[in-house]
Please model this.
Amino acid sequence: MTEDFLHYVWKFRLFDMNDLKTDEGEDLMIIKTGEHNSHAGADFFNSKIKIGATLWAGNVEIHLQTDDWNKHNHQHDKAYNNVILHVVYDSGDNIIVVDKRLIPVLELKGKIKRKIWDNYEEMIGNKDWIPCEKQIKTVDRFTIDNWLERILIERLERKTGEILTSLNQNNNNWEETFYRYLAKNFGYKINALPFELLAKSIPNSILAKHKDNINQIEALLFGQAGMLNDDLNDEYYNRLKKEYEFLKHKHNLLPIDESLWKFLRLRPVGFPSVRIAQFAQLINHSSHLFSKVLEVRSTLELSKLFNVATSDYWDEHYTFGKNSVTKSKHLGKDFINNIIINTIVPFLFVYGKKKGENKQADKACRFFEELAPEKNSILTKWKEIGIVAKNSYQSQALLELKNEYCLPKKCLTCSIGNKILNRHE
Model:
């Protein structure tokens, strides 16, 4: 038995509600179980309990045993003075007194249906990819879709906090904050950190001063990336290197360490050198980029906005000084969709919420529905067990479900888990 399971049982009244009595033998009626509290303080707020002839309103605390109250030092915390009922699995012989008031105790031992606990133990104890892998196909799609919709909002709100923190650090400069997040996502997971550090090392305001000169923008970005420190017999490379030396001193810049960049096991088109060249073109073609993003009405318009290719040099190179087969290096459809999903949509959602412009938040969710689901190992596994994402709206929710619920085995707070646990037969 666990406290989390008791919270679940209490919240959904999954115990025998007939002839309830306190440890003192008084009749007890549950009017309202209360609001589950995941922060400091009592476990449930705003509960309503009738004990004898008296109606009580206050908080409910839940433990495995009565003496856990003192073990958790609640007797020294005034936040627990408003507890009206102590719910425990096994009451024992201990009593709890707060402000000379005896806290009534409800014991749940013998009142919980064994099948519910067995279902929970089976899910939590297995080593499947997700706890309910063997049972999830029995859950109706309506329940799954509704839960995915709620989880997507949770995912967006979680990202909202990250963006707002960064926005505050950037003095509420939306363009600078967007520029940094965009750079981070240009690196995908493997080069996210060096791309983020690159953007921090050279503010968007400096690049904006050179936005009409692609040679200077490339020099600034490659130089700040630490990639212009070699001696190469390459005209393009040396031109950037010379330009960077001038701009570096002009703007008092400090480059990041070149060793941060990862090339190993990447397809050549995904090399950070190619991504930086594409990023430079985006900066060159789109000043006030976030303002333009706010104006677009569809993912098709966004795709056109981000449809850039590298400068001519990179048509025949993946790294400096090494020729390759000629190939134009546009940002691909999947890459642009990834930018829309992981940068643009969260920013539109945050901007809409912060500015009170619901049309931007609604547009963010609509963009999710317009895009095809992503392709990765997690979504492939979901498909194998019978859960197929219809669009990026659902694929993002499935990623959140796997990482935030299934991995930590939070089945008790998952609607899909609840559906399975509540099967008594």
Remarks:
- The beta strands are 28-32, 35-36, 44-51, 54-65, 83-90, 97-98, 101-102, 105-107, 317-319, 322-323.
- The CA atoms of residues 34 and 46 lie 5 Å apart.
- The chain is about 50% helix and 10% strand.
